[in-house]
Amino acid sequence: MSNEVILLAHGSGGRLSHDLVERLFVRHFSNPALLQLNDSAILNLSDLQPLTSNLQLAFTTDSYVVSPLFFPGGDIGRLAVCGTVNDLSMSGATPLWLSAGFIIEEGLLLADLERIVVSMAATASQAGVQIVTGDTKVVDRGCADKLFINTAGVGFVPPGVQIAGNRAQPGDVLLLSGTIGDHGMTIMTQREGMTFESPLQSDCAALNGLVAALLGATGRDKVHVLRDPTRGGLATTLNEIAGASGVGIELVEAAIPIREAVRAACELLGLDPLYVANEGKLVAVVDREVAEQALGALRAHPLGADAAIIGRIGDEHPRRVVLHTPLGTRRVVDMLTGEQLPRIC
Amino acid sequence: MSNEVILLAHGSGGRLSHDLVERLFVRHFSNPALLQLNDSAILNLSDLQPLTSNLQLAFTTDSYVVSPLFFPGGDIGRLAVCGTVNDLSMSGATPLWLSAGFIIEEGLLLADLERIVVSMAATASQAGVQIVTGDTKVVDRGCADKLFINTAGVGFVPPGVQIAGNRAQPGDVLLLSGTIGDHGMTIMTQREGMTFESPLQSDCAALNGLVAALLGATGRDKVHVLRDPTRGGLATTLNEIAGASGVGIELVEAAIPIREAVRAACELLGLDPLYVANEGKLVAVVDREVAEQALGALRAHPLGADAAIIGRIGDEHPRRVVLHTPLGTRRVVDMLTGEQLPRIC
């Protein structure tokens, strides 16, 4: 199919739409729920989950518009699966099922679409989730930029888990699962044409396994907040937590892991890594009793090898994030204002 | 906000993103699950549904790229809510929760976005569903066409319901809930600039109430297939049913309700109404024992006033749809090939 391109008729709902569904989506995403090919996927809860009287579902969605479609460490498809798996995981939920909605610009190479679909299938399989329902729309040339993907996700919240942005308490400890800025600086250097000289790679990864390891080590009720610092970076995520919980966050700059290449690229482009997007990292606010177990569990997992304790929750200056610099000074770190880079995810 | 437009920074994940969420989405979609404002909405199943041992969820998604954004009888927001409610309903599920993902072109008028969000909220409220989670991305000017919306939906399948495209059986009766072609011809005449002379209006509507009335009148096990004939029209939908069930469908042309204005517009534009999209109609394949009850239940509902029995399921010519014309001739009606009109939904 090397020269074939997507035509408007692939989005017609007619013969070519059916061919595309069979040839790409059914073939690569194949699973019993998807193969029903009805207007909805029908999912048996009781197959998967002992039904308890306080059964809770988690439900989330994100659209992905990243440019370029392919980048070191991932592609829009891998991002679309990981991002939604991560949003479910940050609620403490076990991700199970994803939907996939494709908005395609007429003229996209079918081979590029297939490469992305194959990447989504592999990522979903690694994360232990199934893509059970989908949709394809095609818009005329110039009315979209190659490809946008929406995924929504459904999972279960295990009994006893109560993780939410408003549960940080003074005395809690703040952990970060690894280096910051890898995804954002990879995309930026790609766009700036600095690719040849850069060893940067997106950290795009599904974090459900890491969350399961963390909850297993600490007990489900000791993890108070989980967030993945994507758009807006670590600074924005921490401001969201401080605001929702009405607490202050004391952040230790020297403790925040950053790769040298990311630091160098940030300096070159005049960017603060605290505001650069990540796609495979999490922030955890945990009871201080379990901080060391939490750190150990993160570091024992391949996706948390560089984990660190980066600060603590306080009760001074509520709703603010204060950065303690290596020079002994302090400054307030605000939420991202303006736009650093459009279409980072 | 009459002159304000969407900026790239509204999609940054930072301050302006938060403002937009508060000002539009939280304000108009307001419900407890959405107000959690975490990475996922947490939904208590046990509040809504007696937990049975064979609990089944329905899960579906669609993206909406219709152009123009506003049209007689609806807008892209109303379409995005109705379409996903209808996909859940066509599985016999009770729709409960929707997600909403917005992909916005920089420069969209904030007032237009708000008008659409208000329309989504009103449509969701009428349909008895909640928009519980969402996402906003902004792409630079020229990289999308004003606004695309994805909705995904989750619902429950009541015990005893077994509705699927492969359950049509010879002897079953085929019903249609009303006139065909209204949505598609409304969009087409808008685009052709025939608006001033046209009394056409989209049929865009949420069909969950109509399905509940139908199932209540017939018994849950007597309705075998439900489909809403959207993209590709009635002809494509019936071909899908014939293919999935391995049956033949005998369709009586004279029995298919069509408004005179739709017929006239089709003739003018050289289109076959059998292939024109609908957004508020359903096709039902029911046990012949309950055909009259089914027709009565549909006609008694405001969205089914023009319902009709339009054919039957046979065992001759499996996988084909045969149209019986008023002249006594027969012709095979195939699935849509090519593209009638891009961005009809």
In short:
In chain A, 30% of the residues lie in helices and 24% in strands. With 345 residues, chain A is of the alpha+beta class. The radius of gyration of chain A is 21 Å and the shape is globular.
Structure, described:
Two copies of one chain form a homodimer. With 345 residues, chain A is of the alpha+beta class. Chain A has two domains: 8-157, 2-Layer Sandwich (60s Ribosomal Protein L30, Chain: A), CATH 3.30.1330; 173-332, Phosphoribosyl-aminoimidazole Synthetase, Chain A, domain 2 (Alpha-Beta Complex). Chain A is 30% helix and 24% strand. The first copy, chain A, is built from nine helices and 14 strands. Chain A has helices at residues 15-29, 32-35, 76-89, 110-127, 182-191, 208-218, 233-245, 260-269, 291-299; strands spanning 41-44, 56-64, 70-71, 74-75, 94-105, 130-139, 147-157, 173-176, 223-227, 248-252, 283-286, 308-314, 321-324, 330-333. The first copy, chain A, has a seven-stranded mixed sheet with strand order 9-11-8-12-10-13-14. In chain A, a hairpin with a 5-residue loop joins β13 and β14. In chain A, α3 (76-89) runs parallel beside α4 (110-127). The mean pLDDT of chain A is 94. At the A-B interface, α1, β1, β2, α3 and β5 of A face α1, β1, β2, α4 and β5 of B. β2 of chain A pairs antiparallel with β1 (41-44) of chain B, so a sheet runs across the interface.
* The CATH architecture of the largest domain in chain A: Alpha-Beta Complex
Structurally, how many domains make up the residues of chain A?
2
Largest interface (CB < 8 Å): A-B, 88 and 88 residues
Biggest pleated-sheet summary of chain A: 7 strands, mixed
Q: Would you tell me the overall average pLDDT of chain A?
A: 94
CATH topology of the largest domain in chain A: Phosphoribosyl-aminoimidazole Synthetase, Chain A, domain 2
Computed Rg of chain A:
21 Å
Low-confidence sequence ranges of chain A: none
State the name of the first-level CATH class of the largest domain in chain A.
Alpha Beta
Strand content of chain A: 15-25%
Ends of chain A: how far apart? 28 Å
